[in-house]
Amino acid sequence: MRKKRLVSSIALAATAACGAPGTPSDSGAGSGSHSGSGPRADLRSGPRSDFDGDGMGDLVITDTSATVNGTYAAGYAAVVRGSADGPVPARHQVITQDSLGLGNAGTGGRFGRHATSGDLDGDGRSDLITQAGSRTVFIVWADRETLAGAVRLTGAAPHVGDFDGDGHTDLVTSEGPSTATIRFGPFNRVGKPSRVKSVDLTTDDPAYYTASLVGVGDVTGDGRDDLVVTWSHVYADEMPTPRATVLYRGTADGGLTKGSRLKDARGKDMFGSSVTTADVNKDGFADVVVGLPCEIVGEETRPAGGSRLMVAYGGAAGQSSGLKATTINDSTPGLPGSPVSTSCGFGDSATAGDVNGDGYADIAFTAPTEDGESAVLVLRGGPGGLTGQGAQQAASFPGTPRLALLDMNGDQAADLAIGTLFPGVGDGKVRILRGGPSGVDPAGPTLIGPADLGLTPRPGDGFGSDFGH
């Protein structure tokens, strides 16, 4: 059958009926909703994407560099449905800005940027949220068999959480270098939230000019989500470079209260180019995992002391008083595959999920190896926090793989999705490695290529270059 060119209509190929709505699995991520108070242990940093409410995660593959309908870097988000047997490529949907009927994408619109998901309207199914351009956020509503109907909002860097602890999913977006807007759920289908609150993120340190939204999680364990913000210094090339990570605590009225800066084991500011949250020691407090693979995002500049992965453990005051922050690098005992952190790249693409179903969040990330490839490593969570004990090398690839952890078959163990950052690397296919009691199984992966989703990539496209989170 001749391959189809990516077109503007939303195409859903369904060869099996969707399951009945159910309770989403906690393996890989939470829904962003929480009822009640007290510490909780939701693994919320992988994709929260259960669009049909069947309890099995649906994988979101994004390519912001893709040419769509002749428009360069218009971008798309492709949804592959999960099932009891794992991902089903035949049940897919490709969503572009053109397909939403809210204005066509312009050159460099990069639809699919900052893609995330959460149940904004409270119907038990996750909705897709993504950015296009520099100041536009789209919400694409989920129904049982398809994602259809959308609204557009003003903002950037969308994240979801429950900042007032009322059990409804809220949406926070950046409104500039020092302001955020929280839209509180539930939303109606025309995009109107229950209420709106503006949050001042102005830095109190004159060395830092830009505040960026980078993560959400209940770090303080009070039943309300907290916002993780990076403070950046802007150098002569105008590239904001992270230099501090600050926690803004959720409150009963939904406002955010600025807390302290997160510190490493030496008491110095913890910062990096990627942040995810998950409860790796199962104490009911979300932990903040920070990757510092390169000194400046997009440049191969090795950080002082080497590239690394760091964990600040959560606590009632914002950071644990009993468990010191952890730094993972090539000197951490137990790491397989001879990774090196003295070069740029260690700690890249960090993502969290419970790969063996034991209730502890595990962390997958990439690290360069001595032979010039990138190892995909999985660190096991445990009572003592994140260590190299029991670490697993799930794969090794040239280039820089992109990762996501998500339970796609409902067995309470997160599966590992691996894509490539650069076009032309490897066979150009996304690999899905099943999770289970022994961890990630590298044997017999599910392979998903562009043709499986009816796509014909153009030169410069990067299928599998990122995932929704």
Description of the structure:
0% of the residues lie in helices and 36% in strands. It has a 5-stranded antiparallel sheet, with no helix packed on it. It has strands at 11-13, 59-63, 76-81, 88-95, 113-118, 127-132, 136-142, 147-154, 156-161, 170-174, 179-184, 195-200, 210-217, 226-234, 240-250, 256-261, 274-278, 287-292, 308-312, 326-328, 348-353, 362-368, 374-379, 392-397, 401-406, 415-420, 430-433, 446-448, 466-467. The two termini are 33 Å apart. The protein is globular. It contains no helices and 29 strands. The chain has 469 residues and is mainly β. Residues 1-47 have low confidence and may be disordered.
Keywords:
single chain; 469 residues; mainly beta; 5-stranded antiparallel β-sheet; 4-stranded antiparallel β-sheet; 29 strands; disordered N terminus
Unreliable stretches: 1-47
Report the biggest beta sheet as strand number plus sense, adding barrel if it closes: 5 strands, antiparallel
Cα gyration radius (Å): 20 Å
Q: DSSP strand (E) fraction?
A: 35-45%
Q: Can you give me a brief rundown of this structure?
A:
The protein is an all-beta fold.
Question: How would the blueprint of this fold be written?
Answer:
Blueprint lengths: L10 E3 L45 E5 L12 E6 L6 E8 L17 E6 L8 E6 L3 E7 L4 E8 L1 E6 L8 E5 L4 E6 L10 E6 L9 E8 L8 E9 L5 E11 L5 E6 L12 E5 L8 E6 L15 E5 L13 E3 L19 E6 L8 E7 L5 E6 L12 E6 L3 E6 L8 E6 L9 E4 L12 E3 L17 E2 L2
Antiparallel strand pairs: 1-4, 2-3, 2-29, 3-4, 5-6, 6-7, 7-8, 9-10, 10-11, 11-12, 13-14, 14-15, 15-16, 17-18, 18-19, 19-20, 21-22, 22-23, 23-24, 25-26, 26-27, 27-28
